[in-house]
Amino acid sequence: MATSTLPTPAPLLHSIVLDWYREHARDLPWRTEQASPWAVMVSEFMLQQTPVKRVLPVWAEWLERWPTPAALAAEPPGEAVRRWGRLGYPRRALRLHAAAGAIVARHGGEVPEDHAELLALPGVGEYTAAAVASFAFKQRHAVLDTNVRRVFARAVTGVEYPANATTAAERRVAVELLPEAPAVAAEWAVGVMELGALVCTARSPECAGCPLLRQCAWQRAGRPPYQGPPRRGQSYEGTDRQVRGKLLAVLRAQHGPVPRGQLDVVWPDGIQRARALDGLVADGLVEPLAEGFYRLPQ
After folding, report:
1. Mean of the per-residue pLDDT values for the chain?
2. In the predicted structure, residue 67 carries a pLDDT above the cut 90
3. What is the C-alpha to C-alpha distance for residues 99 and 120, in angstroms, rounded to an integer?
């Protein structure tokens, strides 16, 4: 039997976090027993790099219009981009549309339970496959999003922030911490995620109210400041991302081709505007047409 490398026994961490989660978990629609695996998958795509409060109304609109993968796959990808609205990172909408098409083609329109089959879907990476398998099907997988990685970095490893990219050491910790029972492991995964979202936050952690305060390796070490490489920023104002968003807003607002002139007025810097538009075309989010017209992908 392998020797544990954890500073606190895993069963104790499980008990503390699960008790806290059962008392403090937010009432979110994709966590209910009635939520379909497709509803869970849509939420996971939308929640990547986007706060819950922004996702909730868009998620509800999507599930009302496209309650199944087949319903989404039957429409052009441009409609997915249109309905994505202002969630940001709109390539996620194209990826979700592509995943819906693959689910229809390969799995009879039902989101697959098998982790490997989930991972094989277009647009589904390691995190999303593990999250859907865990939250929709109550399976036992290490689910490592930004919130979970931060909790593990502080409580287990004793550092303020995890590395920019997930490391093999983090994965080993996550696997070692997994409860044996699949249903408990699935609840543990979402419980740690919730703790990171509500208490062990990035900028202003509420350590005094954290259920892991006494067990936290970072607290025991005196909360040493982060010493790793510079953390990636989330700047938006004046960036190509902002310009792309403005261009897409014009295209989403119309259901037909848009002349280049209507796009040219959204941003004064012509070079940056052209670069952003070229990027949207390269990403498949915009289709150029003849005579200087553009539209969402069909």
Report:
1. 94
2. yes
3. 9
d(C-alpha 146, C-alpha 47), whole Å: 11
User: Which residues face 259 on adjacent strands?
Assistant: 293
User: 3-state class of 296 per DSSP?
Assistant: coil
7 phi/psi in degrees, rounded to 5: -70, -25
Catalytic residue at 79?
no
Beta-bridged to residue 288, according to DSSP, are 294
Global pTM reads 0.92
- Give the amino acid at 185: A
C-alpha span between 193 and 12 (Å, rounded): 17
> Are 60 and 29 a contacting pair, CB within 8 Å?
yes
Of 111, 89, 101, 109, which is closest to residue 45 (Cα–Cα)? 89
What's 213's DSSP letter?
T
Residues in the chain: 298
Where helices occur in the chain by DSSP H, the ranges are 10-24, 37-47, 52-65, 69-73, 77-84, 91-107, 115-119, 126-137, 146-152, 168-177, 182-198, 217-220, 240-253, 260-264, 270-282
Name residues whose C-beta falls within 8 Å of residue 175's C-beta, 6 or more positions apart in sequence. 142
Catalytic residue among 44, 79, 160, 187: 44
The angle formed by the CA atoms of residues 95, 101 and 103, to the nearest 5 degrees, is 100
Encoded tokens for 251: 């295209």
Dihedrals φ, ψ of 230, to 5°? -55, 135
